[in-house]
Amino acid sequence: MELELLVSVCAWFFGSFICGLCGLGAAIIAMPFMMLVMPVQKVILVSCFTAIGLTAAMAYVYRRHCPWKTVLQMIVGALPGNVVGLFILKYVPATVLEIVVGMMLIFCIVGMQLLQNRGRMESNLKNALIAGFLSGMIGTSITIDGAIVGLYALLIGLDPMSFLGFTSVFFFLRNLVTDIMQAMAGLYTEEIVTYALYCLPASVLGFALSVPVVRKINVNAFRIVVKVVILLAGIMCLLRGLWA
Question: Were 15 and a residue from 26, 177, 233, 240 both cysteine, which residue would form a disulfide, CB within 3.0 to 4.6 Å?
Answer without folding.
Answer: 26
